Amino acid sequence: MRAVDLIRRKRDSGELTREEIEQLIAAYTAGGIPDYQMSAWLMAVVLRGMTRPEIAALTEAMLHSGSVLDFSYLPSRKVDKHSTGGVGDKTSLVIAPIVAAGGLKVPMISGRGLGHSGGTLDKLESIPGFNVNLPLDEFRRVLATCGCSLIGQTAEIAPADKKIYALRDVTGTVESPALICASIMSKKLAEGIDALVLDVKTGSGAFMKNIEDAANLAELLVETGKRMGKKVVALITDMNQPLGCTAGNAMEVAECIEVLGGAGPTDLRELCLELAAWMFLLGERVKTLDEGKKLSADLIASGLAREKFREIVGLQGGDVGVVDDPGRLARAKHSFVVTSPLAGYIASIQCEQLGVAGVVLGGGREKKEDKIDPAVGLEFHKRIGDAVERGEPLCALHYNADTRLVEARSLAETAYRIEPEKPKTVPPLIYRVIGA
Ligand code: URA
């Protein structure tokens, strides 16, 4: 196999065989193919797409680039959730402790920020000491002890995705249903889970900008999971505006602690309750979705979910004091408030621009080796449909280094469209459920 031949074939809209895909992935994972050739092939996939057999072969090649875990020795069902990514999308940190507190096991292998979207691992690492790089033995021990562990891909878990994900992040090759499907499902199928809830985002801050593309991706993900014998549903949820009131690693952790404490923004709380309810339902812990929602709300109200979060943080080496006092998290030295140039109503938000504003301030990566500043973030004061006065704050940028503040300001200032009339509709939180 010559990588250049596979790149040219995909460039010309040709189809690769299962064997060719297996060889390509194995060679890249082993270091036998350079990043520039893999990048070229990934771009060809973004532009030309992949057939269903190619996607199945890619997912399985990436899954089998490492070990597939088996937790069948642990009592109770193993369930997980995964989101395709967005701005302020922080539900994992709330849902994982709720579901573990409810008696199911949550072996969660997550990703880092990708493009303009944040990642669970980067958020968790803003908790001082929190180790997302547990070796597998330790992952197993934490999971058996408290019912949940949140880690990144180890060298053993879907190492092909780990390498390819980092490359896609910085080569403009994220937005491909085939690549997203293979990336998500190779990690998730390696976790030894029985069931998976997928949160497929759509809108201006999602990788899938329109609902039909999101539905196609959701169907692809559900079909792949079911073919591998898992119970899977996908919720298509809104990302036309940030989820909750913050985007930025430490700020999002603080917001999740608020939700676990029974407060926090309504949209974030509602989506967490819904996703956790689906996990309880697929994990056969409850018989109906309503029962699942009630159980989730009760676990928050009783403090058990928050307690579970504290236990996870402690077992993974993090500062548990953060759970009682989020003021211990990193805080940016400077803020800039973006105000409304006119009075009216928020008609729409260019949500991706807000995510990029956070990245250019240092809250995300533009190159694989970039270091993230956990304190960087955005705080959102207005949502679609809200009334706004001239000069009223729309959002605030929190930063330490001002080298690219001008760029971030311009992105945030132009992200809001303000109209004199109140919009007739505001985006719903959830559009559809696929695979139920
Ligand atoms: N999340 C992933 O794990 N992979 C993607 O490609 C996109 C979102």
Short description:
This protein has 436 residues and is of the alpha/beta class. The chain is built from 17 helices and 13 strands. The strands form 4 sheets. Strands 1-4-5-13 form a 4-stranded mixed β-sheet, with helices on both faces. Strands 6-9-11-7 form a 4-stranded antiparallel β-sheet, with helices on both faces.
Cα-to-Cα separation, first versus last residue? 41 Å
What is the fold-level CATH name, i.e. the topology of the largest domain?
A: Pyrimidine Nucleoside Phosphorylase, Chain A, domain 2
SSE topology string: HHHHEHEHHEHHEHEEHHHHHEEHEEEHEE
The CATH level-2 architecture of the largest domain is identified as 3-Layer(aba) Sandwich
* CATH homologous superfamily annotation of the largest domain: Nucleoside phosphorylase/phosphoribosyltransferase catalytic domain
Small ligands present: uracil
Task: Tell me the strand percentage band.
Answer: 15-25%
CATH class of the largest domain: Alpha Beta
* Contiguous runs where pLDDT drops below 50 for at least 5 residues: none
Oligomer: single chain
Q: The biggest beta sheet, please?
A: 4 strands, mixed
Number of strands: 13
Number of helices: 17
Strand order of the largest sheet: 1-4-5-13
> Structural class given helices, strands, pairing?
alpha/beta
Percent of residues in helical segments? 40-55%
